[in-house]
From TrEMBL:
Descriptive protein name: 1-acyl-sn-glycerol-3-phosphate acyltransferase
Xref: InterPro entries: Plipid/glycerol_acylTrfase (IPR002123)
GO molecular function annotations of the record: 1-acylglycerol-3-phosphate O-acyltransferase activity
Source domain of life: Bacteria
One record GO biological process: phosphatidic acid biosynthetic process
Pathway the protein takes part in: Lipid metabolism
Amino acid sequence: MQSLAKVIYKSLGWSIRGRFPEEVKKMVVIAVPHTSWHDFYMGLLFRSVVGVQINFLGKKELFKWPFGWYFRKVGGIPLDRFNKQNKVDRIAEMFQEHTLFRLALSPEGTRKKVEKWKSGFYYIALKAGVPILPITMDFEKKEHHIGDLFYPTGNCDSDLTSLMSFFEGVEGKIPENS
């Protein structure tokens, strides 16, 4: 499958800059910007080309018939958005439940343009004691740029400013939502 993914990825004109730290078994991966449904299959292709397991969360309704089996097969984990349990706490617990858990999240929390990221991904990483790996989804350059591992300090505002700077000038599939 990896060979086929590489052929498709290259034929679409995409490239990868940087190195995925596959030796790190637990992390929060942030892929930015998230502007379109195309991000999903490009993320799956990226993951296949790099050859690493990366999980993602989805609303539990997505995991019902007929597509539930597929989303689970490709690393999806259903999340009940209406459960009263704190979602940050529950997701941070997932890191303790697995020996290998790399969780991809979108800091924007939507495919629309936002002025400010949601901070849940940050607090999940902080609570779970795992680093954050920034990866661009640059449709203009057709490039995934893998940044350096970022270890949250507990100063959310400063850390988010630092993380956001990595994504300056990156355009998503729908540029006006970037």
